[in-house]
Specification:
- By secondary structure, this protein is α/β, with parallel strands linked by helices.
- The protein has one domain: 3-Layer(aba) Sandwich (Rossmann fold).
- The chain contains 6 helices and 10 strands.
- The protein has a 5-stranded mixed barrel with strand order 5-9-8-6-10, surrounded by 4 helices.
- Helix 2 packs parallel to helix 5 and helix 3 crosses helix 6.
- The longest helix is centred in the C-terminal third of the chain and has 26 residues.
- The model has no long low-confidence stretch (mean pLDDT 96).
- It binds S-adenosyl-L-homocysteine.
- The site of S-adenosyl-L-homocysteine has 19 residues, from strand 5, strand 9, strand 10 and helix 6.
Length: 231
Amino acid sequence: MLIGIIGAMNEEVIQLKETMNLKETKTIGGYEFFKGELYGKNIVLVECGIGKVNAALCSTLLIEAFNVDKVLFTGVAGALNPEINIGDIVVSTDLIEHDFNATAFGYDFGVIPRMENSKFKADKDLVELAKEAGEKEFGKERVWTGTILSGDEFVASPEKIKWLRDTFNGECTEMEGAAVAHVCELLGKPFVIIRSISDKANHDANMNFDEFVKLAAQNSKLIIEGMLNQL
Ligand code: SAH
């Protein structure tokens, strides 16, 4: 079994890279894919860059060039649910591209015209595994499961939080997850997106982000570790 692991930013992959037993580095389309072993499992690790297009291209390459069996995404996100705190974990049950807007044709927000499905479901077993690993590490009250929203926007306002909550009922928002999910669904690969909260998507989000990104990335990494030990 070969497991693909994606993070958007250097902060989100560097700890895994330093821990893994690196055997081969392959560069495709400007992305460096690190192949090797991590906690006894065969993995390919890659930093996809920020935003949906980067995430979609990179996950496509990961699946097509390496034929990974499962895809795990580790990273940080802004909380939308007011009960979720910085450092908490959100495991995706499903993901929506929140900036998709074809409402002029009568579609709901987030619906991609002419696609059967615009809400991409994570793999049940991987969700369960991520949840268990998270709860073991951080306790039940700090691990949430639910809908994750993705868009090419760093959300940093209470008005946008309210709109996203009212429209999609998402738990947190970020910029890559739904793109990875979209690709995995089309290419038939099981996936889960694991996000640790770096900010509360409000006016302080950019400052909180800078302060907490490392902590949040570390939390996500601990879950990957717990999951790989059980896979
Ligand atoms: N500070 C960075 C930009 C970070 S963009 C720089 O200047 O280079 C934010 C990244 O963290 C994205 O990868 C996104 O997935 C995630 N993220 C964290 N909080 C977010 C929020 N409030 N809104 C959207 N994405 C967020």
